[in-house]
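#lab-general

N.A. 3:47 PM
ok so I finally got the sequence cleaned up, no stray characters, all 360 residues accounted for. can someone with queue access submit it? mine expired

B.Y. 3:52 PM
send it over

N.A. 3:53 PM
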Amino acid sequence: MLVKKLILENFRNYEDETFAFADGLNILTGKNAQGKTNCAEAVFYLCTGSSLRIKHDRQLIRRGCDHARIYAELESKFGAVTLAAVIYETRRELYVNGNRTPRSVDFIGNMTSVFFSPGELRLIQDGPEERRRFLNLSISQTSREYAAALVRYRRILEQRNNLLKERDLSLVLETVSAWDEQLALYAARITKKRQEYLARLSSLASKAHSYLTDGQETLTVAGEREYAGGEEEIAAAIKKELAASLERDLRLGFTTVGPHRDDLKVSIDGADARGFCSQGQARTAALALKLAEVEIFTSLSGEPPVLILDDVLSELDLPRRKKLLSRVGGIQCILTCTHAERVLVGAASKKIRIHGGKIV
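B.Y. 4:20 PM
back already:
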């Protein structure tokens, strides 16, 4: 998958700019706060239908404007593809090849990308929510079934949580089993997909980490819990967990078990990475996960994703910088940095200088 052209209209600090990208390494360079990351964010938005930086889409609209537009022309193994997102204050419109897609799940995955920035340290060091988000965004790009199940699960979870706050206990006891039945069904689909994905991710991330550290450390990644059997067996197990936790759920007013509460276990040399690793170790572990993600996307879709490296190379020492650039050779990469000459270590690239939301 290649991004050939990207047009940003009233997006963040861009008024109207057109980017033409090369097939290999593209460097967005310039001083801080000029719009380099905003451009990278726009590409990722077209892949996932969401931003890694904000919660509300209206924050993407340029100040003083009533809408923003992102448009991209792509080249895939199936031919030319266009993607567009028009973002308004309270809604958005998504387009594939000029046709509006009413459902987000039909938009996600038409282009795949892997995004890595210094903020990805949260993936290792912060709480379970960051690791769940990583899994959800990653799997959704390659499985619309997963993305759809996630939407349904969240809606049913909201209904169950509302029910748990109901003061009429008899009403809760009469109806909660019906919600549990539906919740367990979609929870099983999500859990099964996550287990399959993690089986791939664990092995590939371990190999990538060994490559980056010259075999000096061992990275292991695993799900917090493993369920045996197919979706029916997993659904039955989760339904039992929901029933067993009902008293606690009623006391707390929300559902305490299920995929929305699960976590990943990331360990370095057998120790929990969240509690014991250094900044450098966390950065390398997160990068290994992202490199594994690239390999999974390539394997599942038959073509590599767009790799977005936002201000990453300056955070790595020279040996790891060289290893990373060597590892991603042949993949279209959009890299942001303030001083291209300090991080490129001789790699061929197309350089685009950004100043004040304009290409200069």
